[in-house]
């Protein structure tokens, strides 16, 4: 049965995914692609209408990878502009691996544990966006220096498929913009001879929660 696509306000398909890890996050569990069983991907898929992205993420990994576990932090929201979808990505510590699961029986899905470094390298061959968010599990010194998003941050960030190593944090951008504007206004105040107390303060801006992203089709599964 083909499920209806679920879109955000910008027309991007809503997806959710989990980076499945062992207890110390030294290994990552990937699943075989339905399109090509020789390729490995991060399990994930469509967020259904009225479904929270974290619930969708855990549902998808159970269906695709046959694992359950403890859902941890959100790494952000990652954008694939070519396929027009945005994926909310979570970390899940695996506590149970089923011998058989839905997509192993129906599609012959396989799963395999990789070191984080191996997973990043494997995904970089054909899934650069997935590679970019798995790389956030690497030690800070080993990460791409252009990636400012902290692995512990749950603020929604967006990474473009054209620049997969750069995570653009909307909230940070808004804060920087606000600070820049406030500085400009302060300079204008000083030039006009006004008192600092007359400067209108800007309220804090919060980014809209994009934490959705998905399509249940295999194209969506293979972000």
TrEMBL record:
Residues 179-223 are annotated as: Disordered. GO terms for biological process: adenosine 5'-(hexahydrogen pentaphosphate) catabolic process; diadenosine hexaphosphate catabolic process; diadenosine pentaphosphate catabolic process; diphosphoinositol polyphosphate metabolic process. Keywords: Cytoplasm, Hydrolase, Magnesium, Metal-binding. It is an enzyme of class 3 (hydrolase). SUPFAM superfamilies: Nudix. Belongs to the Nudix hydrolase family. DIPP subfamily. This is diphosphoinositol-polyphosphate diphosphatase. It comes from Penaeus vannamei.
């Amino acid at each position: 049965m083909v499920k209806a696509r679920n879109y955000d306000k910008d027309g991007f398909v809503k997806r959710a995914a989990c980076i499945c890890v062992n207890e110390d996050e030294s290994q990552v569990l990937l699943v075989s692609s339905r399109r090509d069983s020789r390729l490995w991907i991060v399990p994930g898929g469509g967020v259904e209408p009225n479904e929270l992205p974290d619930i969708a993420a855990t549902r998808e990994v159970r269906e695709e990878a046959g694992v359950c576990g403890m859902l941890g932090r959100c790494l952000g929201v990652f954008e694939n502009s070519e396929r027009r979808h945005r994926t909310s990505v979570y970390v899940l510590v695996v506590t149970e691996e089923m011998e058989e699961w839905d997509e192993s029986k129906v599609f012959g899905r396989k799963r395999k544990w990789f070191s984080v470094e191996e997973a990043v390298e494997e995904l970089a061959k054909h899934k650069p966006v997935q590679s970019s968010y798995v790389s956030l599990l690497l030690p800070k010194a080993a990460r791409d220096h252009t990636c400012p998003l902290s692995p512990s941050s749950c603020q929604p960030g967006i990474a473009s498929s054209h620049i997969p190593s750069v995570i653009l944090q909307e909230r940070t951008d808004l804060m920087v913009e606000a600070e820049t504007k406030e500085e400009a206004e302060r300079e204008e105040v000083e030039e006009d001879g006004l008192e600092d107390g007359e400067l209108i303060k800007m309220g804090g801006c919060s980014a809209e929660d994009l934490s959705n992203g998905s399509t249940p089709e295999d194209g969506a599964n293979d972000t």
